[in-house]
Specification:
globular, seven-stranded antiparallel beta sheet, 37% helix, 470 residues, alpha+beta, 16 helices
């Protein structure tokens, strides 16, 4: 028998029934105001907004379970919402339904110093988590740039600037509590460092973008706060020399904390927006951590590699204010890029390729930008082959919109041809469904079978990752 699910919008009677029941359960934690509904749709990209019919704020796993059971009974879609920072339309509600805002489930439930673990609710953001951990001398190292929620980071398999050293969310989550589409509560994984007990459901949920279940608790791996942190920049005359330096450090196994590439236009944007005075050329931001001796030795080795690759200027500092100013500029790079074209909309793409193909793929993207007359900057977590293009677009210009779509498709095709992927960390959402189909081929049928086994009514974040109708 072929598994099928509908993509139809639920009738107004179903929405009304769910609204009435949830009003009794949640009171003023259920809202239907237009502004709130639009805020809970996709607003962080140039893609259009599709608002839900209502927004709910649960406070316990039991409430999440009851909400999902109710929506299951009436076939009303549920779109989990974290901090609203996703970039590929994951928060849109193409069939209407309920946006499930997890921001009130934001506590640190337990910290186990000896095991280097923390148990947290999904609504806590990474910055607040690390503020609460500071007194323990421990930190959660995954840093996607935005102050994302832990639940959202799990759902999109986030990584970010520290991924070259610490990996992605898939490497830093031991266990999850998840509410399935029909309200069933399950736990996946354990506190143990490894397990051979059955299917790895934890990693099945990580990266599922809210289509398989709603995460209500996560057990996270923690790391010690480094004794010394050295941060700095290395400027290069061209892209090839900068990427050559990165390849050398990866091949040598240099234990560098972070290494980011920013092209000349992105440096120009950061200088203007963040009041920096960096040379406007291809630049690597880097960070070395450890004991004082280890951090210094790593920085000196990296500097030597960078000079051998052609670096024209290298500078680093242990001063936290200097270092934080530099990395804040990196985190503000999206807003800096938008300021280059006032009134524009931003569209951020990503792709990830084997490190050996990085320079070729970035150079091709730069050439394509120029050939199409598009305005964009290029930056990325180049230590693991992940790069981004920040496009500044006029959504009212149909010709430009067509050029943008062709440009983004070209990035995907080149990455896939190089043995890479259409997305290293942003996920699929609505924006890259066709790219995933090109990349996964027949494996899409396996993903669809998993989805429909867990959510045969297709109420969890429908219209994302892939279509579920046969």
């Amino acid at each position: 028998m072929t598994l099928q699910a509908t993509e139809t919008t639920p009738p107004s009677e179903a929405i009304a029934a769910v609204h009435a029941a949830l009003s009794d359960l949640l009171g003023d934690r259920l809202q239907t105001g237009q502004a709130l509904r639009e805020q809970h749709a996709n607003t962080a990209t140039g893609r259009g907004t599709q608002a839900p019919d209502m927004v709910a704020w649960p406070e316990t796993t039991e409430e999440v379970s009851r909400i999902l059971r109710l929506c299951w009974d009436h076939a009303v879609p549920v779109i989990p919402f974290g901090a609203g920072s996703s970039l590929e339309g994951q928060l849109n509600a193409p069939r209407g339904g309920l946006s499930l805002d997890m921001s009130r489930m934001a506590r640190v439930l337990e910290v186990r110093d000896e095991d280097l673990l923390a148990v947290v609710q999904p609504g806590i953001t990474r910055k607040r988590l690390n503020e609460e951990l500071r007194a323990t001398g421990l930190t959660f190292p995954i840093d996607p740039g935005a102050d994302a929620s832990v639940g959202g980071m799990c759902a999109t398999r986030a990584s970010g600037t520290n991924a070259v050293r610490y990996g992605t969310m898939a490497d830093n989550v031991r266990a999850l509590e998840v509410v399935l589409a029909d309200g069933t509560v399950i736990r996946t994984g354990s506190r143990a460092a490894k397990s051979a007990a059955g299917y790895d459901l934890t990693r099945l949920m990580i990266g599922s973008e809210g289509t398989l279940g709603v995460i209500t608790e996560a057990t996270l791996r923690l790391r010690g706060i480094p004794e010394t942190v050295l941060g700095g920049i290395a400027a290069f005359p061209d892209l090839d020399s900068a990427v050559s330096a990165v390849i050398l450090l990866v091949q040598m196994g240099l234990d560098i904390g972070r290494v980011e590439l920013l092209d000349a236009m992105q440096i120009r944007a950061c200088n203007a927006y963040s009041k920096l005075d960096l040379e406007e050329t291809v630049t690597l931001f880097f960070e070395c951590t450890g004991s004082e001796a280890v951090a210094k030795d790593t920085a000196e080795t990296f500097a030597e590699l960078a000079r051998d690759a052609g670096a024209t200027h290298i500078d680093w500092s242990s001063d936290p204010d200097t270092r934080n100013r530099l990395w804040q500029a990196r985190h503000d790079s999206y807003w800096a890029a938008l300021a280059l074209r006032p009134g524009c909309k931003g569209l951020v793409s990503d792709a990830c390729v084997p490190i050996s193909a990085l320079a070729e793929n970035i150079a091709a993207a730069q050439a394509d930008l120029q050939a199409r007359g598009l305005i964009g900057t290029i930056l990325g977590h180049v230590g693991d082959g992940n790069f981004h293009v920040v496009l500044m677009t006029d959504p009212e210009d149909a010709d430009e919109a067509a050029q943008v779509e062709d440009f983004l498709h070209g990035i995907t095709l080149r990455a896939q041809a190089a043995g890479g992927t259409c997305t290293g960390e942003h996920g699929i959402g609505q924006g890259k469904m066709s790219a995933l189909a090109e990349e996964a081929g027949p494996a899409i049928a396996v993903m669809r079978a998993v989805k429909l086994a867990l959510d045969p009514k297709n109420i969890l974040n429908p219209g994302k990752i892939f279509e579920v109708t046969a």
